[in-house]
Design brief:
Layout lengths: L24 E14 L7 E11 L6 E3 L3 H11 L18 E6 L8 E7 L10 H8 L4 E6 L6 E4 L3 E4 L7 H25 L3 E11 L1 H12 L5 E5 L16 H5 L5 E5 L1 E2 L2 E2 L10 H5 L7 E6 L10 H4 L8 H8 L4 H20 L15 E3 L8
Parallel strand pairs: 1-4, 5-6, 5-9, 9-10, 10-11, 11-14
Antiparallel strand pairs: 1-2, 2-6, 3-4, 7-8, 12-13, 14-15
Helix pairs in contact: 3-4
Length: 378
Amino acid sequence: MQLLMAAVLAASTLVSPQLSGPFPVGTFDAHLVDPTRADPFQPSKNRELMVTVSYPAKRKGEQAPWLGQGLATAVDPIISSPDYLDIPAGSVDWSGTPRQARVNAPAVPGRWPVVLFSPGLQTPREFYEGTADDLASRGYVVVTVSHTHETVAVEFPGNRVEWGLMADAKPETMKKAIDARVADMRFVLTQLPRLHKWIDTSKVGIAGHSYGGYTAGETMVHDRRFDAGINIDGAMEHTGEGGTYAPGEVVKNGLDRPFLLFGGDLGERELSHVDTSLTRTWADFWPNQRGWKRDVHLDDGAHLGFSDMQWSVPQIAQISPERRAGLIGTIDPRDALAAQHDYVAAFFDLHLKHRATTLFDRPRHPGIRLVRSNTVGA
């Protein structure tokens, strides 16, 4: 994997990482409306979503922008603020930064397994397109989903931007969000055959980061069409602020299908099933999981390092070393990207394509640790 470091100037474009799979990638956005469901955040309207589809393609067409112009304008003051990057607004040309995927490139015929991806709480799906595009380059159709009115902003056709409407993190609000997310993912899977011709809906995976990781597990509980899932650094609970412990059904009941936990660090604490300092949910889930399971840890990686911040932050010179470490950790970003992409692909290769791998028996990447239980046989 190649991670190019660009010289950063004001309003600079960034360089997205090269794809690691054998296929070029095509991409398109789709606007979906569920006529059977009211939007939980705006009940007077039907639920509508935006998704991005990435797929094996021929090397034709222009590179897609990382963020659309409307979304870039909307989120720049937020992502540049002291709460996140802490850089002057306008430092990065988000919409001028290209992905490796090409807009509407002709698809490579085949029967490609499908993977749906759910982003972190209030996070745009666009901040995970690097992961999606890389997996698509290895022979998958990957669909990233924006959860409207929970996500901070979603850009719809005609430059319409719908803003997030989550006013708090109370338990009832968090429960509303996870229920909406599960329904969103199930609806998107139902719509996929009309969106892309070359998909194999008998081989379906789901993954997500942070609250998206909770979404992946909870969706599998409610829908057996999903064959395998990954939780990337996400607590599986809707406890919210000041609420009593409220783990998801996936924690209480486990799954009879494969599920991977892929965690990172928060300071001296780690998210794993042997450390309950960040959440009890992984430890509670572990003995209830009946299907294949592994707990993979990225040492010295931070929470937002599992998003496109992993490759973009190192290119933004205005970010202080301390802020950079807090956002993406201290692991070499090239090592982190290679590990993340290889482990996500190896998991779905194993369980959707039935290709053997040794990555879950012994780590081969810097920073990767396989978390073992102290309990015999666990």
